[in-house]
Amino acid sequence: MTAATHSSLFPQVPESADAVLDGLDPEQREVATALHGPVCVLAGAGTGKTRAITHRIAYGVRAGILQPASVLAVTFTNRAAGEMRGRLRQLGAGGVQARTFHSAALRQLQYFWPKAVGGELPRLLDRKIQLVAESAARCRIRLDRNELRDVTSEIEWAKVTQTVPADYPAAVAKSYRDAPRDPAEISQVYGMYEQLKRDRSVIDFEDVLLLTVGILQDRHDIADQIRRQYQHFVVDEYQDVSPLQQRLLDLWMGDRDDLCVVGDASQTIYSFTGATPDHLLNFRTRHPGATMVKLVRDYRSTPQVVHLANGLLSQAKGRAAEHRLELISQRDPGPEPAYVEYADEPAEAEGTARRIRELIAAGVPAGEIAVLYRINAQSEVYEQALADAGVPYQLRGAERFFERQEVREAGVALRGAARAGGNDALLDDAEDLPSQVRAVLSTKGWTTEPPAGSGAVRDRWESLAALVRLAEDFVRVRPEATLADLVAELDERAAAQHAPTVQGVTLASLHSAKGLEWDAVFLVGLTEGMMPITYAKTDEQVEEERRLLYVGVTRARLHLALSWALSRAPGGRASRRPTRFLNGMRPGSVAPGARGAGGAGGIERGSGGKRKRRGPVLCRVCGKTLTDAGEMKLMRCEDCPSDMDEALYERLREWRSDQAKQLGQPAYCVFTDKTLMAIAETVPGDEGELTQISGVGGRKLERFGADVLAICAGQEVGGDDEED
Length: 724
Prior knowledge:
The protein is α/β, with parallel strands linked by helices and 724 residues long. The protein has 28 helices and 16 strands.
């Protein structure tokens, strides 16, 4: 390929194994060259984890250490597996198997089933929901469409956590899981579902893993054959592994330890599907000699976005929080995140749409902008606002609001009630338009109180509740409006929201945004009750909500806006509060008991921000990017020449000794040696310059700043008036 035809779409294959390592940062290179024994890579958002592990595999193949056919790389989506295969081909490592857990297991099951069991593999169910419906009917348990979806999800969760039907109620209670129905009823349906599958010789998606595990446990000859073929394993997104997937991985491995796992406990947001970060967090315990590498250089987001992300995690609790990664942005500084408070939800949507139009006018492509919310039912008001503003949009992971099944059914019911008028007995006791709407929608599943838990039933209720609120808002503007007027309004809104099919602003839930990124991200609806969601009751559930917001923040490359509304509707009571997760970061708020995360990032108070946020820390002598905490304090590499004022350093040390005696604390509690060296090298002349030195936080600036600046200016400092 000539230079003229070369492009990023057709990158040249590296000429040698060493060339594969070109362009990797030191930590990524460490991953790529750690080819033996267990390896655990803790990779923060935007740190190039896929780049690191694909270059690791390619380097091993190109160096002749790994045979392509002996490598199995496992991830969680077909998209991610396809991307990995493509990158490996571009690096000259074609022939490596990159698959999802289910895809790899299904191939093995199809191949070994005749030998292990005999005959052909049972047919794989395309959709299990129909069989779940039949199982419920046989148990004489009535489930509507949405309950069917939720019960089906519960059966899937039970199977990936290796919970049999009889144990399901106890497992739900132990995990504090909100079951969509009585656990005893779900246990019945689950048991009947398994019986019907056996009777009809069919298997489902989860059975693929379960049956593969069963064969490998029972047939050592087959397990040995697979282990002879696959001798080197790589697992991406390891924080999302379920107990069943971990069991399968253990059987693939046998007693070997040639395993590389990559993950980030702070991005565990799928526990409702059975995912658990425990396998990642316990990796060092299970493999005491493992090589551990941390990727913390964030190439995706600006220092301002990274600072906020680090601040969010600095307040986190639990095991995942103990292993959080402090990201260091490698990008140039950008705009500060915007914290915007609105009077009501429509104002929030309109303000967001207005800001999006401004970004598009400034040259940001609509396809590089996203609006992220907690639940899909929040999309309607943003669909409307963007349509009104003439901004194209696309929905990800959800139907358009007016195309949802429950919304269409509700529209039909409201239209029928409007035609019947006074002849509909359902409306006899309804005195006003909102009461009429509530009466009609109560036949479709709306209730005054939301259903417990999450899932399809809750999503359906949220959609119907949005229609009730719309009726309340509509009559507030048009007090004499009739049900027929409301139906006409709904029809007009539905017609207006058909956005062009061209590339547009992405509207998505936070869960469906995982793995994606945009130039500009708007995180909306950030109020208590929505973030964290009301049904997050336990500490761990609340912490998962915090991680979900963290995932949302780290989707942004450059522009980030966080907003909330004080009331639902215009003129409503301003009773809502911004999410607790932003306490200590949004202007005017305080973080109760916040723990500093250390290094870059942290919590900044107030709207002005006295402390300048830091970008990549570069050596002021040679220009190299610094990641070592000590070198970052000095703003130079350890082996680069120092221009420290030795006399100033000694005066600072004497002053520090006096301060430590007065406070009754060790000297390093005042300032560390490295911080004093950095001060003596930079000789700050004011508070702004002093706060640029890592280790001089707001509290120490307030307590010691005046003394340090006086010493740097050559003035004498007295120590008798120092207060603790």
